[in-house]
Specification:
Blueprint (H helix, E strand, L loop, with lengths): L14 H14 L5 E2 L11 H12 L12 H15 L8 E4 L2 H12 L5 E6 L4 H8 L3 E6 L10 H7 L4 E7 L11 H12 L5 E5 L15 H4 L7 E6 L12 E4 L2 H12 L7 H12 L3 H22 L14 E2 L20 H12 L1 E2 L1 E2 L9 E4 L4 H17 L2
Helix pairs in contact: 2-10, 3-10, 4-5, 4-9, 11-13
Length: about 400
């Protein structure tokens, strides 16, 4: 009898975490490494949020809570959806989990049966396909290349839907590309979904507040109210509020689905951290002015990275609408060799050689389903980004 389950053979560890871990290990060895792999803001959690957590501890808010969230936080989430997205939900329609990842996982575990298909536009966040596999479903990746700015077209969505399709996972702005869908682009997709009533929509809005220039964020149930009853609108405090370690995500959707997700959570983690919930409550109800200030910083970093990477030989780097990632194309580097003789046959080889020869850690594109590319997280200082991009420029210039 084997120790490990057959299910485990269907999935792999997160490549983004693997890159970050490797970069940290090299740093610990004393090597000069710049890690651009982690999707994590470099800002501290705002003081008023930290203080709310301390008050919760001092007030003894350290015991079990309701399985899927305290009433106060659920009410604040309902207010947030109404205020920012024009969506009306009741607390019974809200689930709070241990990070956005658990929210998505719970929904898939609660709904997927063997043979169910889940459409995942590629490039995709690395965890989407593996979570579908863990839930017993079949991920259906639909490649969206640089020619469409890494966005899914209605024609490709229509072609991917079959009688077995249960979910369509939508992420805007996107991890890993930063691409954001305009209202018209999203409406074209929702028009397709209206024709297929068996398809549920899972909208991952984690980067909602990280949008630049004049881009206006919108979410599927907001754009097409007729899809409200089969949409799970997911979000969290990790990215916008620099609370990645606090592990609070949330979602709103039909009561039956929310109840099913609560059953999964009740037999896995139980409630999210009580203290983190009170911190998230303050995040959603307290001052929001810093969001605009941080957005300006991230936009400046985006512009810096896009400009410098487009000056690198063999690289094309589109300018994304949001998040804090860019997803450069390295077609011009494929087939060339490094000074040490390594032939760049794909983006994984490129990323490995870049790390070994320059100390810059990025995530190779194959991990996200579209090659030849790599992902850069620019959630770090201008100084670090300039140095990293200069090293990438030198590396590309050295290829022959």
């Amino acid at each position: 009898m084997a120790l490990l389950s057959d299910t485990l053979a269907r999935v792999k560890p997160s490549p983004t975490i693997a890159v970050t871990t490797k970069a940290q290990a090299l740093k610990a060895e004393g090597k000069d490494v710049i890690g651009l792999g982690a999707g994590e803001p470099d800002f501290d959690t705002p003081e008023h949020i930290r203080e709310a957590a301390k008050r919760a501890i001092d007030a003894g808010k350290t015991r079990y809570t309701a399985v899927d969230g305290i009433p106060e936080l659920k009410a604040a989430i309902c207010a947030k959806f109404l205020r920012e997205n024009g969506l009306t939900y009741t607390p019974a329609q809200v689930s709070v989990g241990t990070g956005g990842k658990q929210i998505l996982y719970n929904a898939l575990m609660a709904t997927c049966n063997p043979g169910d298909e889940v459409i995942v536009p590629a490039p995709y966040w690395v965890s989407y396909p593996d979570m579908v596999l863990l839930a017993g479903g079949t991920p259906v990746a639909v490649e969206c290349g640089i020619e469409s700015n890494f966005k899914l077209t209605p024609e490709k969505l229509e072609a991917a839907i079959t009688p077995k399709t249960k979910w369509f996972i939508f992420n805007s702005p996107s991890n890993p590309t930063g691409a954001g869908y305009t209202r018209d682009e999203l409406k074209a997709l929702t028009d397709v979904l209206l024709r297929h009533p068996q398809v549920w929509i899972m909208s991952d809005d984690m980067y909602e507040h990280l949008v630049f220039d004049d881009f206006e964020f919108c979410t599927p149930a907001q754009v097409e109210p007729a899809l409200y009853d089969r949409t799970l609108t997911c979000n969290g405090v990790s990215k916008a509020y620099a609370m990645t370690g606090w592990r609070i995500g949330y979602a709103a959707g039909p009561v039956a689905l929310i109840k099913a997700m609560a059953v999964i959570q009740s037999q896995s983690t139980s409630n999210p951290s009580s203290v983190s919930q009170y911190a998230a409550l303050e995040a959603l109800t307290g001052p929001q002015d810093f969001l605009g200030e941080w957005r300006k910083v991230f936009q400046g970093r985006r512009d810096l990275v896009v400009s410098m990477l487009n000056e690198a030989k063999g690289i094309t780097c589109p300018k994304p609408e949001g998040a804090f990632y860019v997803y450069p194309d390295i077609s011009g580097c494929i087939g060339k060799a490094t000074a040490s003789g390594t032939v760049i046959t794909n983006d994984e080889v490129f990323a490995t050689a870049l790390l070994e020869e320059t100390g810059v850690a990025v995530v190779f594109g194959a991990a996200f389903g579209v090659s030849p590319n790599f992902r850069v997280s620019y959630a770090t200082s201008d100084e670090v980004l300039r140095e990293a991009c200069a090293r990438i420029q030198s590396f590309c210039a050295s290829l022959v």
